[in-house]
Amino acid sequence: MARKTDAPPVNITINGIDLQVPKGELIVESVKRLGLEIPIFCYHPRMKPVGMCRMCLVEVGMKQPDGSVRKMPKPQAACTLPASEGLVIFTDTEQIHKDRKGVLEFLLINHPLDCPICDRGGECPLQNNTLFYGPSTSRFVEMKRHAVKAYPLSKHVTLDLERCIQCGRCVRFTEEISGDAQLAFRHRGAEMQPVTFELEEFTSKFSGNTIEICPVGALTSSHYRFRARPWDLETAPGICTMCSNGCNVWFDRRKGKLVRINGRTNEAVNEEWTCDKGKFGTDWMNNPRRASDVKVRRGDGFSRADWAEAYAEILERFREGGHEVAGLAGPMLSNEDLYLLRRMFDETFGSSNLDHRMTSVQGPAVEPPSFTIEGLEDEKGAFVFGASLSDESPIVYLRLRKAWYRQGARICVATSRPDDADAFAAVSVRYPQGGEAEFLRSLVAELRVQLEGGRSFGELADLASTLLETRGPILATESLWNLDQAGEVLAQLRLAAELLGVSLNVMALGANGQGAEELGVRPDAFDRTGLGTRQILEACADGRIRALWLAGVDPFEAFPDRSLVQRALENVEYLVVQTALETEAAAYASVVLPITAPGESDGSFTNVERRVQAFEKAVDPPAEAKPAWRVFSELMVRAEPRTPHFSAREILAEIAREVPAFQGVEWSAARDGGVLLGARRPLSRARS
Amino acid sequence: MSQSPDTPNLRFSAKAVAELESLKTHYPNLKACILPALWIAQREYGGHLPPEAIAEVAHRLKRSPAEVQGVATFYSMYNTGHKPGRHMIEVCTCLTCSVCGAWDVAAYLEQKLGIKMGETTPDGMFTLHGVECLNACDRAPLIQVGDEYHGPMDEQKIDALLERLRNEPESKVVALADALVQVHLKEEEREKARRAAEAVRN
Ligand code: SF4
Ligand code: FES
Ligand code: FES
Predict the structure, then answer these.
(1) pTM of the model
(2) Is B14-81+174-201 CATH 3.40.50.720?
(3) pLDDT at position A611
(4) Listed range (A276-290, A348-362, A443-457, B5-19) with the worst mean pLDDT
């Protein structure tokens, strides 16, 4: 809800207890202060109240001057009732219990009551409210409304219209939160349907959230449908790995297998939302192409090996390999994996040829991002440059949209292609592909002109003036390193940031891309000099590098220059592929080491705003798979006697000691909400 | 914002575009303009609001087509179902009219036109509908055709009315939509729209 903290307090009474709440607070929220609960369906704390379902009825009275209470003749909806001085609320009277029964009886008239075969059964607000407050039998003997069962709105979302209680949560989500407004109510009365225009595909990038907020089983996940009953599920907290935003999620398993991912509340990161990529991206866990055995190349094929055999072979090639060996690291490796990977390369292999960047060029290090996701809400604006945030950084996108929707923030967008953010941007500007540097040069020039009191005409001038008025952070992504003139683009962005007096944030894209930067998984970190990704691949292709280690990355997928990758992998003498899936690169391997997929081991990621978030093992890995850090630790021990690492926690503690940026990071804090590096604003803003 | 990113087929005439531009200035935002814009569309699309018409309104008002379809299907006077006939005959079936013989009127119409309530004659001439109180109970049983009220009705009057309507080439459905557009406009805005239409003709 809109933050009401600055509203003056008013005195209200709930069930005879006096309390002070900010003026205008909705009564449905005020009762929570007393630990009470009012049953609801349509109300959702993150969306505007609409009072559609009438489940939240309360009796309302006003204190009279003589101290008595005059009750209003009819009950009121608590979700649309703002607190005002002298308001007296009753949530537990006989009348209210009767009213709730009545509302539920009406809601159930057309509800099919197919709970025994409904995905929602067991975690259904309609079931729960009926159990607590509803009638135990129905007096309705007439024909129920019938409608289509299991209509596929998209490949993710299936609509069971009969179950819908027409609360409008899904409709309001697409209008208020995701902003695509793809769902709307068609027709009216009992015929009302929450559907897309002409039943076209529901293509929202955030559609999965509607499944979670539907208070009945009307919107169900096409993937999870009939796969489990909620009471058979075991759940564990986790961090999504599909992008750098680091959404907090629940991993729901049935018989040890991941069947569903739901959003987990973290006000500082994803609130409670997830994007569809994350929510439905469960494939990697149950993928039939899972790499589960240690394999070594023998002649033309592979044969199964044990770890000791593989380690011996690898050490022979890599130990003291110096500049003849190199490594590439993937975006889903944890902080712990990356830290030990770098130490292994430094200490055991004596090589600085290690990189995690998969962009076309690898430039010098950029200052780390300094915005916070939650902090975006307080900005007067922001400047999105060259990024499609709804795809690349969906949670940052939702926050920016929220800043606009709630506080009228003026977002500026400059991209080469139309973008989803255009829908709410104050200014959207297009530049031709390849014209990024030139565009920024003109923008910087215009900023200078305007700072001196002048002004040109056209959209560039509008952009510049809006930027000068709002002075919000500049948001770009690491994909700018794929541009031809990346260096110049960055220089101009820095100039613009300087002129505006704002932060420049080059956001990482991979789940732990920021962690890799912080931990120095790049050839130039900590005063070392080695080869970057492109140079490593080139050196493999022409034989200067003889052994390459691919740690959780398939360069065929990740690196833009496929033919270079092919030449590199064909020509390098020895190739270690450490992977969770049978990737294309694995076909070229000398040895394949299975690693755990995210969620199958403990660890931590550093997200786009430099928040370290720890997670614990949620799912059992395939028998042979090991966390990457364990492999690195075991190899280092084999190379020379030392104390091995036993757990991810222990490694994180070591990182906190050894890497200055991580100073003070503790496992438990990283697990419960996360820890911001650089300690800018460690605490989530207190909300009333 | 829109679900189909590609521009839909736009069919509004120059006059309609001018009218819509004027209407937009009447409201604080484009969302508020959906209802009158749908009336324009209903006129432009021959008394009917097929999905294409809704997509066009959504496009012109920068709203999502789902939202506009939601609004259009909520109100019964927007013809979002099948294409109506040239004239729509609406028989009031509410209390006073019922008592005064509305159902006899309805039955006679059904028999005479060979269709049931809610249907359209095969020649596309008439559509028959039952409606709630038309707020002219003093003339019960009442029939509405476009912007005309007729009542109290009996069989002779129905015969005469149908005969007259058959010979009327202008669609009463379109006429009603146009009338509803015009009441939203100021005189100078109507003039502007007329000039826009003329400019195209010349
Ligand atoms: S589908 Fe669910 S969320 Fe949407 S209106 Fe129906 S009950 Fe509410
Ligand atoms: S929760 Fe208040 S009316 Fe639905
Ligand atoms: S009941 Fe028919 S006009 Fe009122």
Answers:
(1) 0.93
(2) no
(3) 97
(4) A276-290
A82 and A145 belong to one structural domain: no
- Please judge whether A196 and B4 are an interchain contact, meaning their C-beta atoms are less than 8 angstroms apart: no
Residue where the block lists tokens 């529901």: A202
Label residue A67 by pLDDT band (50, 70, 90): confident
Interface test with A, best of B69, B75, B80 (most A CBs within 10 A): B69
**Average pLDDT for chain A:** 94
Read off the pLDDT of each residue in B104-112 and give the average, rounded to a whole number: 97
3-state DSSP of A195-218: ECHHHCCCCCCCCHHHHHHCCCCC
The whole-number pLDDT of residue A85 equals 94
Distance from CA of B115 to the nearest CA of A (A): 24
Q: Specify if A688 maps to a domain.
A: no
Q: pLDDT tens digit string along A429-474?
A: 999 999 999 999 999 999 999 999 999 888 999 999 999 999 999 9
- Between B3, B58, B73, which is nearest A196 by CB? B3
Query: What distance in Å separates the CA atoms of residue A320 and residue A192, rounded to the nearest whole number?
Result: 71
Instruction: Verify that A217 and A319 share a domain, yes or no.
Output: no
Same domain, A520 and A642: yes
Q: Tell me the mean pLDDT in the region A35-57.
A: 97
The whole-number pLDDT of residue A679 equals 59
Is residue B6 less than 8 Å (CB to CB) from chain A? Answer: no
User: A359 and A385: one domain?
Assistant: no
pLDDT digits (tens, 9 = 90+) for A139-175: 999 999 999 899 999 999 999 999 999 999 999 999 9
Q: Residue B75's CB: how many other CB atoms inside 10 A?
A: 11
Q: Residue B156 Cα, ligand 2 centroid: separation in angstroms?
A: 53
User: Does a structural domain hold residue A106?
Assistant: no
Compute the nearest-CA separation of A126 from chain B (Å).
25
Domain B87-170 coded CATH 3.40.50.620: no
> Would you say residue A684 has pLDDT above 60?
no
Same domain, A579 and A524: yes
Query: Predicted ipTM?
Result: 0.91
Ligand 1 centre distance from Cα of residue A50 (Å)? 13
Using alpha carbons only, how large is chain B's radius of gyration in Å? 18
Per-residue pLDDT, A682? 37
CATH number for the domain that contains residue A457 = 3.40.228.10
A164 lines ligand 1 (CB under 6 A): yes
CA–chain centroid gap for A136, Å, is 41
Confidence band, pLDDT 50/70/90 cuts, at residue A598: confident
State if residue B92 touches ligand 3 by the CB under 6 angstroms criterion: yes
Domain assignment of residue A69, yes or no: yes
CATH code of A193's domain: 3.30.70.20
In A348-471 the beta strands, taken as DSSP E runs, fall at: 354-355, 381-385, 410-415, 427-430
Q: Based on the fold, state whether residues A380 and A502 are members of the same structural domain.
A: yes
**Ranges of each domain in chain B:** 14-81+174-201, 87-170
Closest ligand 1 atom to residue A168 Cα is 5
B-chain residue closest to A172, CA distance? B67
Q: Which domain holds residue A70?
A: 9-92
Instruction: Give yes or no: residues A384 and A346 share one domain.
Output: no
DSSP string, A527-588: G-----HHHHHHHHHTTS--EEEEES--HHHHSS-HHHHHHHHHH-SEEEEEESB--TGGGG
Q: Domain count of chain A?
A: 4
- Cβ–ligand 1 contact at A219 (below 6 Å): yes
Q: Counting every residue, how long is chain A?
A: 688
Domain shared by A524 and A670, yes or no: yes
Q: Which atom of ligand 2 is nearest to the CA of A43?
A: 1
pLDDT digits (tens, 9 = 90+) for A212-225: 999 999 999 999 99
Q: Give the three-class secondary structure for B71.
A: helix
Alpha-carbon Rg for chain A in angstroms? 28
DSSP readout, A453-493? Answer: T----SHHHHHHHHHHHH-PPEEEEGGGGGSTTHHHHHHHH
Span A286-307, pLDDT tens digits = 788 888 899 999 988 999 999 9
A621: closest CA among A563, A580, A666?
A: A580
